[in-house]
User: Which sequence fits this backbone?
C-alpha cells in the first residue's frame, strides 16, 4: 500500500468515527418548522403573558436562533430575552399593556442549517377567538433543490464510473481487443475524478452563509473530505492507467491469460491494428480505500436527511437506497459515456459486457425499490398523506419516474442490439429522477401527527424591479400580523426603499422595518372571503403600488 493510500485510509477512518459520533449524539430531521406555541398564534389573551415558548420540529442552533418583541406598529420593544435549547425557543417578555404584539423569530436548524422565520401574533385585552396552532411548512427553495440535485448527480457519476471501471470492465473477454476495455476504464476513472472534484466545489458553494458550528457543519466536513479523497484517488489512479508505446528493442513480457481476472497492477503488451505495441498498466479500481470513501460520503448524505430522525435502521436503509441508486443511475450514465466515445468501440464494449452490466443495474433497481418503500413507510404519518401532503405527492411522482427509468432499461436489455438513443433517454430520465429526489429531500416529511394547521398565508408580486412578498398570520377575521418583504432584482438596486405601507379595506397601516428588506405591522381584517390589499412602497420620491386580492379564512 502506497503512502497516499495509508494517509487517506487513516483520514477516512477518522471521518467515519466522527460520523458515527455525530449520529450517536442526536438524529437529524428536516427543516425546523414551528409546530407548537404558547401563546397560540392569533390568540387574544385577557392577561399579558410573562413567557412565550415556541417549539419546533427539530433541534435549533442556540447561537444562531433568536426572537424579538414588536408592537402592533412593528416597533421593536426592549426588555425581551430569548433562549434556545433543544427544539424550543423561550422568550421572556416585559410587562405588556393592552394592544397587539408580535414575536418575530428566526432559527437555524442544528441538523441541516436551513433558516426558517416567522411572526407569532397575539393580542391583550380582547375577547378570545377560535384559532388553531400554527404548523409552518417551509417549502423547498429552488437554490437548495438545484444544489441537492447537482450533488446527487455528481455522486451518481462518481459511484457509477468507479463501479463500471472496477466491477464490469475488470475482466477481458473474447472477441474484444484488450486495449478497448483498458481505454474505457481510464475514461470512466476520468469521469469519476471530474464528478468528485465538482462535488467538492458544490459542497463549498453550499457552505456559503451556513454555520459550521452545527451538526450539519460536521456532516458537511465529513462528506467534503471524503469527496476530496476520492477526487485525489481517482486522479492518481487515472495517471497510473496510462497507455505507453513500447519501443521495438524492449522485450515484451509474457501475456497474461485472457480468462484470468486482473485484480492488481499488471503490465501486459497490447497490439491494435495498424498501431505499435502498447504497454498498459492495469490498476485495481475498487480498493478498500475507494469503498470506504464512498461509504463515508453516502452515509453523510443519509445522516443529513429525513431518515436520521427515525433511528439507525432507517438511516442504514436510506444509505443503501442512495448507494444503490447511484450504482444504478451512475452505471447508466457511464454506459452513455462509453457509447458517446469518439473511438467508436462503445457499442462493441456494451454488447460484450451486457451480462454483468445488466446484473448490476437490475440489482440496483431492485434495492432502490425495496429501500425506497421502507423509507416512505417511515416518513408518511398516514396513508392519506401520500395524496394530501406535498411530500407524499412528490413521492408519487418519484415512484413513477423510477418505474419509467426501469422500463427503459429493461426494453434496452431485451434488444438484440443495444440502442444508444434509448440509453440517452434513460440517462435523461435518471437526471429527472434525481431532481425529484432533490425536491423530496428538501420537502418536510409528513410523519408528524395530523393536525389542522393555521399556516400564515403568503403571496408575491412584482412592480418595476422590486419583488414583493406578503405573509398574513393567522389569516383570520380580526387582528392579523402582516409581514412584507421587498427586494430589488437588480444589483446594485437603483435606489433604497424609504418605507412600506399597507392599505386594507378599512384603513391602512404603516409597516416598520424589522431588518433590511423585511417589514411588519398589524391590522384588522373584518370580512371573510376575498378582500383587496395594496402594498405601497416609497422609494426615491416615487409611490409604487402592488394590489393583491386576498382570501381571508
Assistant:
Amino acid at each position: 500500500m502506497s503512502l497516499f493510500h495509508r494517509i487517506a485510509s487513516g483520514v477516512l477512518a477518522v471521518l467515519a468515527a466522527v460520523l458515527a459520533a455525530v449520529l450517536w449524539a442526536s438524529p437529524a430531521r428536516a427543516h425546523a418548522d414551528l409546530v407548537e406555541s404558547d401563546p397560540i398564534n392569533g390568540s387574544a389573551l385577557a392577561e399579558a403573558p410573562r413567557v412565550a415558548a415556541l417549539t419546533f420540529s427539530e433541534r435549533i442552533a442556540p447561537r444562531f436562533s433568536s426572537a424579538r418583541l414588536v408592537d402592533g406598529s412593528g416597533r421593536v420593544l426592549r426588555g425581551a430575552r430569548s433562549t434556545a435549547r433543544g427544539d424550543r425557543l423561550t422568550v421572556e417578555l416585559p410587562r405588556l399593556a393592552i394592544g397587539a404584539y408580535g414575536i418575530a423569530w428566526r432559527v437555524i436548524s442544528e441538523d441541516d442549517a436551513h433558516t426558517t422565520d416567522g411572526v407569532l401574533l397575539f393580542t391583550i385585552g380582547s375577547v378570545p377567538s377560535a384559532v388553531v396552532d400554527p404548523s409552518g411548512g417551509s417549502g423547498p427553495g429552488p437554490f437548495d433543490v438545484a444544489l441537492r440535485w447537482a450533488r446527487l448527480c455528481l455522486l451518481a457519476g462518481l459511484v457509477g464510473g468507479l463501479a463500471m471501471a472496477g466491477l464490469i470492465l475488470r475482466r477481458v473477454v473474447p472477441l474484444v481487443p484488450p486495449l478497448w476495455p483498458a481505454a474505457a476504464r481510464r475514461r470512466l476513472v476520468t469521469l469519476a475524478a471530474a464528478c468528485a472534484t465538482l462535488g467538492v466545489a458544490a459542497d463549498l458553494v453550499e457552505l456559503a452563509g451556513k454555520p459550521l458550528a452545527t451538526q450539519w457543519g460536521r456532516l458537511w466536513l465529513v462528506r467534503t473530505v471524503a469527496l476530496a479523497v476520492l477526487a485525489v484517488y481517482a486522479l492518481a489512479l487515472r495517471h497510473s492507467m496510462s497507455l505507453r508505446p513500447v519501443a521495438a528493442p524492449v522485450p515484451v513480457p509474457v501475456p497474461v491469460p485472457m480468462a484470468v481476472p486482473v485484480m492488481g497492477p499488471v503490465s501486459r503488451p497490447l497490439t491494435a491494428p495498424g498501431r505499435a505495441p502498447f504497454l498498459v498498466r492495469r490498476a485495481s479500481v475498487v480498493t478498500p480505500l475507494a469503498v470506504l470513501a464512498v461509504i463515508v460520503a453516502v452515509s453523510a448524505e443519509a445522516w443529513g436527511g429525513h431518515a436520521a430522525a427515525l433511528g439507525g435502521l432507517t438511516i442504514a436503509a436510506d444509505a443503501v437506497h442512495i448507494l444503490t441508486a447511484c450504482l444504478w443511475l451512475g452505471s447508466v450514465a457511464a454506459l452513455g459515456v462509453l457509447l458517446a466515445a469518439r473511438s467508436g468501440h462503445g457499442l462493441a464494449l456494451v454488447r460484450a459486457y451486457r451480462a454483468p452490466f445488466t446484473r448490476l443495474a437490475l440489482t440496483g433497481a431492485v434495492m432502490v425499490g425495496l429501500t425506497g418503500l421502507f423509507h416512505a413507510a417511515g416518513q408518511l404519518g398516514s396513508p392519506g398523506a401520500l395524496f394530501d401532503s406535498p411530500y407524499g405527492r412528490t413521492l408519487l411522482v418519484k415512484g413513477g419516474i423510477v418505474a419509467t427509468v426501469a422500463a427503459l432499461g429493461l426494453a434496452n436489455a431485451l434488444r438484440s442490439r443495444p440502442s444508444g438513443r434509448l440509453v440517452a433517454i434513460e440517462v435523461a430520465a435518471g437526471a429527472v429522477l434525481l431532481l425529484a429526489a432533490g425536491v423530496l429531500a428538501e420537502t418536510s416529511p409528513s410523519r408528524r401527527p395530523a393536525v389542522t394547521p393555521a399556516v400564515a398565508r403568503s403571496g408575491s408580486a412584482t412592480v418595476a424591479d422590486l419583488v414583493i412578498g406578503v405573509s398574513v398570520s393567522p389569516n383570520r377575521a380580526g387582528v392579523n400580523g402582516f409581514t412584507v418583504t421587498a427586494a430589488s432584482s437588480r444589483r446594485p438596486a437603483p435606489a433604497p426603499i424609504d418605507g412600506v405601507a399597507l392599505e386594507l379595506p378599512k384603513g391602512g397601516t404603516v409597516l416598520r422595518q424589522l431588518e433590511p428588506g423585511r417589514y411588519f405591522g398589524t391590522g384588522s381584517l373584518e370580512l371573510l372571503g376575498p378582500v383587496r390589499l395594496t402594498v405601497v412602497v416609497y422609494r426615491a420620491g416615487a409611490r409604487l403600488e402592488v394590489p393583491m386580492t386576498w382570501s381571508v379564512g
Remarks:
- Residues 179-207 form the longest helix (29 residues).
- The first strand starts at residue 34 and ends at 38.
- Confidence is low (pLDDT under 50) at residues 22-30, 127-138, 245-280, 449-456.
